[in-house]
Amino acid sequence: MVIEAQVEKIKLGISSCLLGEQVRYDGGHKLDHFLKDTLGRYVDWVAVCPEVEYGLPVPREAMHLVRTESDVRLLTSRTGIDHTDDMRRWARQRLNELEKEDLCGFIFKSRSPSSGLRSVKVYNPSGIPTQTGVGVFAGAFIERFPVMPVEDDGRLQNPSFRENFIERIFVFKRWKQMAGQSSSLKDLIAFHTDHKLLILSHSPKHYTTLGRLVAGAKKLKKQQLFAAYLEVLMEGLRLPTTTKKNTNVLQHISGYFKRQLSAGEKQELIEVIETYHHGLVPLIVPIVLINHYVKKYDEQYLLRQVYLKPHPAELMLRNHV
């Protein structure tokens, strides 16, 4: 089975302002051209603005998080109106709707008191902030959908975080396509085989755990097995790849060509991997060469490895890591 980028678009949730919708408290937006115009070629967006959908106007008074003795509350910054409980009720209803959307991930607006995933300012009673909070809607989302890939627009400016998140949404999409009601243990084994090297590039520990899960699959009911596998898989993929871990996988791959490559080709592959290992070229360089050899020598096991084509080449994500 040759791995290709999905023709079917991936459905992702996103904070509305990142698509250019003028919904922010000041009437503005935070349009992200990469998300809307580049990634958008492969994505069907489901836009959400918690504050507007909850019922607040545009423009509106800004809000912030305030820590009390027992809770973190969502208050308007100047007048101190408490929207916490109503926002939480709205969030539960909206999450019920989103559950039907078949999402494969969500991109949140960073530092927002409603949508921020991490490092949102939380003020103490004296008005001193610490960047320790999570937005009200974002917190409810990750509690409802704990294994789904999520990220914020701020971290997506980092090439490594961007590549990691987009890789995960494509894996999550493939998982959904595989893990339907008619799926079998055979399907899970095929999925695991396709993703082995990708998992290894993130976490050898999770690679081993997943291998044991699959090997002992008959000890668990299908629902338990699939749930356990997905949880460990997505936990492992959240861990960043590194040059060292990628080099290990590349060297592992090179072992499949011991008999096919000429002496010159072997030396070329060794040198390219070493050049990547020393940080002189991005990951795409050894990957392109390996894909060339995979096709040239029709290496069937590697043809099916998602690691070599985890997302559309047009996104150029591995040109920068």
TrEMBL record:
TM region(s), chain numbering: none
InterPro entries: 2-thiour_desulf (IPR007553), DUF1722 (IPR013560), UCP037004 (IPR017087)
Highest taxon of the lineage: Bacteria
Organism: Candidatus Sulfobium mesophilum
Domain DUF1722 positions: 196-312
Designated name of the protein: DUF1722 domain-containing protein
